[in-house]
Amino acid sequence: MKTFLALLSGCLIVAIARTQVIDTPYLNSGDMPGLVVTRTGHFDGKALFGYMDGGAELYREYGFVDLTVQEMRIEDHQILVELFRMQDALAAFGVFSVSRGDRQGDDSTARYWNQTPGQVLCATGRYFFRVQRLTGGSDASGLARAVAIRVLHLLPDSDVVVLPWIAGGPNAQAWQRTAILVFGPLGLQNGFPDWVDPLEGGDYRSITIVPWSVDGKPATIGWIHCASAQMASVLERHIATNTRPAWQYIRRCEGNSFLVIEADLPAERLAQFARILLIH
Amino acid sequence: MSRFFETRDITRRDFVKVAALGGVAAAFAPLTTQSGMAQDIPVKPGTNGKDALRFPRTSRSLPGAYPGRVVQLLNDNAIVNDTFDVMALHVMLAKGMLALTGAPGVPEAWRMLVAPNEIVGIKVNPIAGKLLSTSPELVHVIIRQLEAAGIPKKNIVLWDRRAFEMTEAGFTAEAFPGIKCAGTEVKDEKGSFYDAEGRQYGEKMIDKDWYYWADVEDKYDAETLPYMINEGKFSYFSRICTKDVDCIINVPILKNAGPTVTICLKNLAYGAITNTGRLHKQLWAETCAEVPAFPPLRDKVVLNIVDGIRGCYQGGPAADQKYICNFNTLLVGTDPVAVDRVGYDIILKKRLEEKIQKEESAKGRRFIDLAEDMKLGVGDLSKIALERILLT
Fold first, then answer.
1. What is the ipTM score, two decimals?
2. Which residues span the domain enclosing B160?
3. Per-residue pLDDT tens over the stretch B71-85
4. Which residue from A86, A169, B67, B345 has the highest number of Cβ atoms inside 10 Å of its Cβ?
């Protein structure tokens, strides 16, 4: 009887694993001239560990739903498509914002699109996807873009994500494009590592970081949102006592949130700049 | 046989005895904190890492024959137009082995670390796919040099956690005829992790006599479980390293993980045990430093060869093409802590140059400091003898 039950449960596990239905959009062979899909894989929830092991933690931090991975061949080159469905549009934007690095290759289209030789990153709605060319030199550099555009057409149209701290403020459009949205330590490590140490151990819900410049000098603006007013106070004190001198300005915005500016500016000029931010 | 070939059999009884003491010790271990914040402080879960220190060391224990010594080989022509130059790799590795060991010839250099009758496991890293895995070209070069030193192909095993990822990265029986390719997590030809009786193939590949215990656990769904093999607070060592091989040549690649790096120690630690999903978030540095301190790794790893021909400085450990670059570098050394320290500086320098970060993060080197505490090698750069060899 025990053997039978073990056999039955084993078969059930195998059956569940095999009958998984992929309900996210994906490419098929022939969707583009010469396109041959050679592999399609799908990873739900924690199964992301199976695909990328520790790399999965970043996506889990933002709220990961599932991933569809496709390898394909086109014009004798191999292309890898990774389509992440996140829990909402902010999560998708957040992962995009910490993955695109120095924003070289950003495209100011309606969607978040970053293109470098051989790779395209894009966030649209609750989807974040990466298209990478696995083989081929510069002659094949347009392939990743062509495939990415095809993937984009598969996804539902969606409004542009609006970051709450930025909307309505000065330079809102430009800030929106440069902003880095952090939901936890891994997002910070990937998206803005210079703030890892000052915020080490800090308990925050999100940080919206905008690398900017004031009077020609670099100024990094951060809106830090915590789960409670008490947590915000603790983190505020921590930053005030543990950061470099350039962290000149810290001011509570609302109960749970506060503004920090890291900039080497005269106090008066900094306060003036901060006032403009706080008004909005 | 040189002193480096002495071995000591550690019995299950020895380990259970030591582990039992350690488990109790871990339960009462002082709680450590991540920062100086007075409240809301995350507490580090306890582990059995210190148990590893109780096992008597052998003459072969890490940091191995050359503590604190690292040879860096640089050759701008090692990769041209995305293609590895195998001859350039051969020369780089040969010169590295000679410089490391001081041997009169390359075969002699290898025989100072590996005996012809031993089963040699070459630990590769294929987890980031084709773009960012240990290069099969370099592994071919290692195998050729081992053969020239008298180690027959039948005594060589290429291994990693996931057999299927090895296949995807090019480590196949067809590409490496006569060499065994082995993984702890195994799928059959139908893509299933389970045999006809519903038992994971991976369960047969682990050795429950050896484990890393940590007071943290994660529940895995049915899809994830076979990638982890087991749940709970125990991570078991792969029998590939506890039983199947006599010595290990570690061949990681040069890549970052946020502001830190994943090179020798990470490749060993997370590549040799099960149930790693639970360890990433809270115990990453501890796992990297403590798992290699257990005898199945500590007493078997004889050499580290870091494949830094191609690597990455941001976006790692996954492959993000934007940050993949040609470091054109091999690092060679028996001391994984010293090699990681040198590799860390290479990646940090690139991150600073590329303005990924403005200054070093204190977190970056934590696992190196912990590994030094575990007596696995030298982490202080001022005490590391680094020899740089430029080739053209």
1. 0.72
2. 12-27+43-391
3. 999 999 999 888 899
4. A86
